[in-house]
């Protein structure tokens, strides 16, 4: 006669199998072979000017100088919004203390022509 607790035993077996599978997965991590990738050469750098070190430190973590410098001429307000967007939308860790100098640097790189 099969015991009325068959369902429970099945559950225990399932849990046991999952535990063993988990232990094996933890004990044998996937083979860690070094992977090498070739990045395209950087042909454009941030130009030397006051604040350039902040552009290097705060912007190049995620994208190239070429990407930043290929924007059209933007006003101070537009660059301020851009830096805020990098922080808020994309999680850039740009310290508050860098903001004014970096915005001034960005505005100076491609000033909006006077009308
Ligand atoms: C944490 C990563 C990160 C950092 C740091 C960062 N950005 Fe970005 N940035 C992004 C992402 C993601 C995009 C959107 C890319 C896309 O749409 O393909 C972007 C897009 C841009 C664009 C294109 C216009 C736009 O609004 O999408 C500009 C200009 C830009 N970033 C400027 C900057 C400047 C200047 C800095 C440094 C002050 C900076 N970023 C730092 C992640 C970052």
Molecular structure report:
By secondary structure, the protein is an all-alpha fold. The protein has a domain at 52-109: Cytochrome c-like domain (Cytochrome Bc1 Complex, Chain D, domain 2). It contains 5 helices and no strands. Helix 4 (76-88) crosses helix 5. The protein is elongated, with a radius of gyration of 27 Å. The mean pLDDT is 85. It binds heme C. Heme C is lined by residues 58-59, 61-63, 68, 71, 82-83, 85-86, 90-92, 94, 102, 106.
Report the oligomer: single chain
CATH topology of one domain: Cytochrome Bc1 Complex, Chain D, domain 2
Strand content: under 5%
User: Main β-sheet: number of strands, strand sense, barrel status?
Assistant: none
Low-confidence stretches: none
Shape: elongated
Mean pLDDT: 85
CATH class of one domain: Mainly Alpha
- Name the CATH homologous superfamily of one domain: Cytochrome c-like domain
CATH architecture of one domain: Orthogonal Bundle
Q: Provide a count of the helices.
A: 5
Order of helices and strands: HHHHH
Helix percentage: 40-55%
End-to-end span in angstroms?
A: 95 Å
Q: Please provide the count of β strands.
A: 0
Gyration radius, in Å: 27 Å
What small ligands are held by the chains?
Answer: heme C
Secondary structure category: mainly alpha
């Amino acid at each position: 006669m099969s015991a009325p607790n068959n369902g429970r035993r099945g559950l225990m077996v399932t849990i046991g199998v999952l535990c063993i599978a988990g232990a094996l997965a933890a004990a044998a991590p996937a083979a860690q072979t070094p992977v090498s990738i070739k990045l395209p050469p950087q042909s454009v750098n941030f130009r030397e000017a006051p604040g350039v070190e902040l552009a290097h430190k705060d912007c190049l973590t995620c994208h190239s100088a070429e990407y930043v410098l290929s924007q059209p001429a933007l006003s101070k307000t537009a660059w301020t919004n851009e830096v805020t967007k990098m922080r808020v939308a994309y999680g850039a860790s740009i310290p508050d203390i860098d903001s004014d100098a970096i915005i001034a640097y960005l505005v100076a790189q491609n000033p909006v022509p006077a009308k």
